[in-house]
Each structure stands twice: as C-alpha cells, then as structure tokens.
Amino acid sequence: MSNTRFKWDKKGRRRIGISYAYLAPTLILMVILLMVPIIMVIRYSFFDNVIVNKNPVFVGLQNYKTVLTDKKFWEAVGHTLYFVIVSIIAHMIIGMAFALVLNTRYLSSTTKGIFRVLFALPWMFTASVIAILWRMLLDPNGVLNFFIQALHLSKQQVLFLASRDVALRSVTLINIWSGYPFYMISILAGLQGVSTDIYEASALDGANSVQTFLHVTIPSIKPILISLIMLDFVWTLQQFALIWMTTGGGPVNATETVSTYIYKYAFTKYQYSIASTGAVILLIVCTIIGIFYVKRQIAEE
Amino acid sequence: MRYNRFSKAMTYGLAGAMALGLGVGGTAFAGETEASAPASDVTLEFQQWWGVELPDGALDEICKGFTDKTGIKIETLSNPYADTKTQIAAGAAAGTMADVVGLDGSWVYDFAKQGAIANLSDLMKADSYDDSQLSDQIKYEGSTYMIPVVNFAYPLYYNKDILDKAGVTEVPSTWTEFLDACQKIKDNTDAAGYCIPLNTEAPNGIQNQFSSWVWASGGSLLKDGKPSLTDNETLTKVTELFKTMYDKGYLSSGVEAMKEQDMVNEFENGRLAFMVDGISHLTTITKESPDINFDYAKMPVMDGFTGKSGMDVANWGIGIAENCEHKTEAMQFVEYLMSPEINAKLAQLANAFPGNSNAKPDYSSNDERFQKAYEFFNEGYAINEFTGAPTAEDLMRSFNEQLVLFLDGDTSSSADALSAIQGEWQSVYGS
Q1: Any idea where the ABC transmembrane type-1 domain is (chain A) (predicted)?
Q2: What b/e string do you get for B300-321 counting C-beta neighbours within 10 Å, with b at 16 or more?
Q3: What pTM was estimated for this model as a whole?
Q4: What are phi and psi of B114, to 5 degrees?
Q5: B39-152+313-383 topology per CATH
Q6: What pLDDT shows up at residue B20?
C-alpha cells in the first residue's frame, strides 16, 4: 500500500510539475500584466504623490480619507449608481424582449436572421463610433431634435447633452443602446436551450403565456440572467470612454462618474495617488461582485 | 547522479558567467561609445506631432538639412498630437523620453516640475546663444524649458454672407457693435452670432474663445505670474459680456456640450456668424466648405480701449529631455530649427507665424486671408497665459465649470463666479 502511494505521489508530483510548466507562460503574463499593475496602484494609493514626485512620502490612509470626504466623489458615486442600475434594468428588459421576439416560432428563419443582425448591430460598434453617432443624433440641430420640432413635441430644442438636468439620462440612454445586444444574444442562447417538453407540459396544465414566462422561461434561464447582471454591473461601473467622449463628465459635473473622476485626477491634475485611491475603491467593489460571480459559477457547476 | 549534478552546476555557472560577461562587456562598450563618439556618430530621437501635420516628408527634409550640416542624425518619431502627448508623458514618468521633444505650452510646467525636461537657459548660456531673437520663451521658476518654434494665431473668423443677410455692413470693432451685429443676426437669420465650446472633455474654449476677448482688450488673467481673477475689470466685463450673449440667445445652442470641432462644423455649415479659431483651420475650412464666404477680422475690443491688442496663440514648442545623453547636440538641433532661414521655412509650411523674430517667411504662396491674419498678428502681440501654467487643462476646466454655473444662473454674479475660480486656481498655484 505504502509502495503504491509512493509511486502515485512521485507520479502525481511530476504531473503537477508538468501542468504548472504548461501554465507558466500564462501565469507569467498574468503576473506581469495583471498582478504587478494592481499591486503598484494599491501601493501608490498609500503615498502623497507618485510618478511626478521623485521622492514620494508614505501617508497611510490619508488619500482614502481625502477621497471619501470629497463631495465631488460622492456626487460621482451617485451618478455612477444611477447610470449602472438604470442601464442594467433597461438592458435586461430590452434584451429579454428582443430575445423572446427572435425566439418565437411565428417568424420565418430569414426574418429572424435579419432582425438578429439588426438588433445585434450596436454591440459591434466601438465606444468612439457610438459617441460620435449619438452626439450627432442628440445635437440641438440633430435628427432627434428635428423630429421633436416637426412633431411639435417641444417648441424649443432639447439640449440632450448640454442641459445638466438631462445629460445623465442621455448618456445612460446611449449606454443602454450600446449594451442591450449582449443580453439579447445571451438570453437567446439560453432560451434555445430550454426543452420544448417543459413548454408542452405547461400548456397541457393550462398555463397562459404570462404564467409560462414567469414559471417556466425565467427559472430555466435564471443562471444566465444572474451572470449577465453581475458582468454588466462590473462593466457599466467601469464605463469611461462613452461618457468621456460625449460629455467629458459635464456640463459642470452632471455626468461625472467614478471613472471620469479618477481620470481627471490622474491625467489633468497629475495627482496619481488620489487617482489610484479612487481606482482601488472601484477595484474593491468590482472584486466583491467578482467573488459573487465566481461563487455562483462554481455552484452552477 | 553525481555526474548529473556536476553537469547542471557547470551549465548554470557557465550561463551565469556568460551573462555577466555580456553585461560587463556591453556596459564597457556603451561607455566607450559615449565617451569617444564624434558628433557624426550621434543620433537624436525627435518626437513630435508636427510631421503628421506638415506636408509629407517636409520635416524629414528639414532634419536632413541638419544632418548634412553637422553629421548628427535625426530620427523623427511623428504621431498625431494626442498619441504624442501620451507617449511623452509616459516617457517623462519612466525617464525614457526621446532626446528632443515637441511640446505644447500647457505641458511645460508639469514636465519641468517633474524634472523630465532640461533647463534650456543653461544650455543656451553654455552655447552663448543669443536668445533675443526668440519671440518667446516658456519658463518655469525663471528658467526657460520650452521655445515656441512656430505660433498659430487665433483671429476672429466671420461669415460674410450671414453678415450681409443680417444687414451688418461693417465688421464690428467694439463690443457694442458686436452685440448689435449679433442682435441683427438673430433677428434676420437662422444663424448664431458666436460660439464658445464648453464641453468639459476638452475645456480649451476658456483659452481660445473666452480669454481671447480679455487679451484683445489688453486684459490679463494673471498678475506677476499668479491668478488675478477678482477685482479684474476687463475679465469681469468679458464674463458679463458672455452672460449677455447667453441670455439674449446669441450663442449657439448647446454650447455646454460642444467641442471645438463642433464649433468649426457649425461655421462650415453656415450656422455661425463669428468664431475665434486657430488659423491652422484655414485650409481645412476652405477645402471642406468651399462655398463658405469667410474672412478674418481683428477681435472686437472693449468700448473705449485704444491700446495694443493681445492675440491668442498656440504653439509648436520644443524642449530637450533631461535624460538626453547628448544635450549639446540636441541644443544644436534646436538652434538649427530656430535659425531665421529654417524657422521661416517651417512657419511657411505649417501655415503659422515664426518663433524667431528675425525670420521672414515667404507667404506669397499662402492664402490672402492668411497674410491678413499675419498683419493683425504683427500689429498686436502674441499672448497665451495658459502656456506654461500649472495643470493648465485643469485650470481651464475649473473656469469652464464656474462659467457654466454663471451662465445658467446658478451663480448670482460674475464677481462670485470669478471669486470661486480664483479660489480653485489659487490652490493650484499655491501648491
């Protein structure tokens, strides 16, 4: 018995060694590209200022105190939460609705194919293209305002991005438009995996379409929905390019989110330590969501 | 087994010795090169965005002229402005900046404070260079860190057709005349009178479309190099002028979200009568909108002002990296670019005004309007108080935010708005 175990241990150790050897290139890359920058940013957050300061001084949690007592930071947090929560809810509703339409048996496969491409189109564009496109659409002299005036919906031009009351809603709308196809495609994939037997059984039991949707469809794709929400939360929380290229966080700070707040501290104020502190706070939030996501994935497996 | 261990030890030992040998040898070789290299063996890296904006091959040809003259090779690293900014900033942080770098005035303070760019005053002194021929020098703590090679002026563009349609017969030269013209434009056309792009992403509207009014009337935002925004008569009046324009609907709608390019688009589409914009856009506007009938005019000044007008300028500046190992040769290259003949050529090619006051560019082949702008430039003086200012972009952004609050009516008076900006600027200059 002991002899066999010894052989297994030796063999096992060798196999583990070989496995790690195969993994080594990826692990090394991950350490260099992921771990080192993260550790550096965390370290920066404990110094008075870095990069532009040749002799940084350790200040402990002072930067965290500065950021967490900054009124502008909390305004940015408020805007970020609005942006994220509204985006996720709208992504879910629109994505689900379009996925159900594309999964229906009442449309021909050609029609479904065309609409699949059309509905998925916003997902194909990069943030810069989306920003340019929507800036043109929402311009006071743009297409949307033209229709608003032509249909007599408003006497004055609507300043979608220039008004402090409307700007945050406008950038959220742009984000909703650009992000729903991810939900749509994922939910559609989930719906196609649900067995028709369950639907037939529910029909035999006399369930109407709403009951079928709530008690058959939703429970069947629940794991996908939860994963989507978690991923979208992290992605939307970090959304920078879209906001920066449309409003730059303005007018004044009407669309300032945590990501634009961090950017301004780093690249226009050159206060990299404060920026790092903001980034670490964001990292903590994303990590918590990430842990839930991974736990969920493991539980599913 | 023993043999295996021995061979392994030998292999590691040999590899280590080879690596050490290579390192030592390499260092010795590098040192030797540095110490004994004649000037002709020196290659300088020249990182800038100018090559992209000049006619194809023009910058390389100018650099070749320097190589022919001195034997010093120039390796041009040309990328668009934004990429150059990122690369230079990264180089400054890592100490790997190219030897000679194209600089924007708004970067100078931060790079100089960081110790990333060399003190040019010392280098000019060591070379006995006569700096009186330079039209300007951008300083940090009394020493020069950037020399403007060419200047891009920001004159007033106006659309002749809109003015004709509105019944404005004379181009306004004072604020009262300007407001009258704006009222006529509002009453008789669909166009806006003026535009100031206030998008916070790029807040340079404060510099080019707002402060240009202050400078044109002989005003200033600074006093002895420090912010002087309160009790500043000209600045207060300009702030109120903008409030009047905003309240009366003379400005383009949605200025709070507009970028400079949006303003140019409005002008190109015939929806804007006046704009203050870089002369570098002359070719683009002429090419993209040949139907637009436009010309340049002097900036309208405060009623009763009779002094010399300041004209807003942006520049292509030049600096030398602190980590440059061949500073003497780099300085030679800077002096070459600033020499009257080369500087004139560069200015002519770039549609800009020379940084050497002795340079006499031949603008005969340039657009007539360009020559007109050059006359305005020569009649006044070049000014841009954001050049060399600490965190210039952030200063503009804080001004931008307070100005929007004032225009929107959230801040009750211009004095309150300017006082708030003074506080924010003071904290930057104070630090």
Answers
A1: 77-293
A2: bbbeebeeebbbbbbbbbbbbb
A3: 0.84
A4: -75, -15
A5: D-Maltodextrin-Binding Protein; domain 2 (3.40.190)
A6: 39
The answer to whether B256 contacts A159, with C-beta atoms less than 8 Å apart, is: yes
**Pairwise CB contact (< 8 Å): A162 & B253:** yes
Q: Answer whether B256 sits within 8 Å of A140, measured CB to CB.
A: no
Q: Say yes or no: A162 contacts chain B, CB-CB below 8 A.
A: yes
Question: Cis omega before residue B38 (within 30°)?
Answer: no
| Complex ipTM | 0.86
What are the residue ranges spanned by the domains of chain B?
39-152+313-383, 156-297+390-430
**Do the first three CATH levels of B39-152+313-383 and B156-297+390-430 match, i.e. the same topology?**
yes
Q: Report the SS3 class of residue A239.
A: coil
Answer yes or no: do A247 and B199 touch at CB < 8 A: yes
Give the per-residue pLDDT at A13: 87
Q: Which domains does chain A have, with CATH numbers?
A: 65-300 (1.10.3720.10)
pLDDT tens digit sequence for A127-153: 999 999 999 999 999 999 999 999 999
pLDDT in tens, B323-355: 999 999 999 999 999 999 999 999 999 889 999
pLDDT of A89 over the 90 cut: yes
B225: left (phi over 0), alpha (psi -120 to 50) or beta: left
The answer to whether the Cβ–Cβ distance between A250 and B404 falls below 8 Å is yes
pLDDT for residue B10: 44
**Residue B303 CA to chain centroid, in angstroms?**
30
pLDDT at B93 over 90: no
Tokens representing B292?
């637009």
Chain B hits for A140, Cβ within 8 Å: 252-254
Minimal CA separation from B224 to chain A, in Å: 23
Give the closest of A52, A159, A245 to B110, CB-based: A52
Q: Which of B63-72, B79-88, B229-238 has the lowest mean pLDDT?
A: B79-88
pLDDT class of A6 with cuts at 50, 70, 90: low
CB-CB under 8 Å, B114 with A140:
no
Per the CB < 8 A criterion, the answer to whether A238 and A259 are in contact is yes
Cα of first residue to Cα of last residue in chain B, in angstroms, is: 67
Is the CB of A140 inside 8 Å of chain B's CB atoms?
yes
Does residue B82 have a pLDDT over 80? no
